[in-house]
Design brief:
mainly alpha; about 0% strand
């Protein structure tokens, strides 16, 4: 409920009180008016206070959520650096290339968060998925690069890992394009605003010259 609705409800309550005390109870008009004013101010104060309390809770919750996401982005960017250093150790060429592609796309997404902080609000899903990638690649690399343990991995295991990373790579492309579409909409809005301002400026100059 916003402040305008609070004022409307307070007005209705005050009007109802005036009619009730005047017609049903038969109070003098001056007393009805005083009572109406008290009811109106009291209801308005209570509703506005409740509205402001709700706004403060929502605002503080949003700020806390953004701060948490920002911290997660910082930590996961560190993980990305570790993943990039780990990539050359991946023995399987197709999987190694997928890891490098994932590093490149993830880096673009993280840079987008820095350049356009508004997109941080939509970062939760990406971060949740990215957190799962590092352990998979790390465990796979340890198993595949150690001669004493490489026999543990089967062809089916590597195929499953490759398909999963391909799916994640495709998802990253969609995420990145989604952020760029958002940036494109902002660019179009800014361009349209400037275009209208320039048009108004030319119109004013024409009228002055006429």
């Amino acid at each position: 409920m916003n402040s305008n609705k609070a004022e409307l409800i307070a007005g209705i309550a005050g009007a109802g009180s005036f009619l009730g005390t005047l017609i049903l109870i038969g109070w003098p008009i001056w007393l009805c008016l005083v009572n109406t004013l008290v009811i109106y101010l009291g209801v308005k104060f209570v509703l506005r206070r409740a509205y402001r309390t709700r706004v403060r809770k929502i605002t503080s919750g949003t700020a806390a959520g953004l701060a948490q996401l920002t911290e997660q982005i910082r930590l996961q960017r560190r993980q990305l650096n570790k993943l990039r250093r780990l990539a050359p150790s991946v023995p399987n060429t197709p999987i190694r290339q997928l890891v490098l592609n994932i590093c490149s796309l993830s880096d673009k997404i993280f840079r987008n968060f820095k350049e356009d902080p508004d997109d941080i609000r939509r970062a939760h899903r990406f971060l949740s998925q990215f957190q799962k990638v590092m352990p998979i690649i790390q465990d796979y690399t340890h198993l595949a690069s150690d001669k004493d343990r490489c026999g543990v991995l089967t062809t089916e295991d590597e195929g499953s890992i490759e398909m999963t990373l391909k799916s994640f790579e495709s998802n990253l492309k969609d995420v990145y394009q989604g952020f760029q579409q958002n940036n494109l909409q902002k660019l179009r809005m800014d361009t349209g605003t400037l275009k209208r301002m320039l048009h108004m400026d030319r119109t004013i100059h024409r009228k002055k010259s006429d």
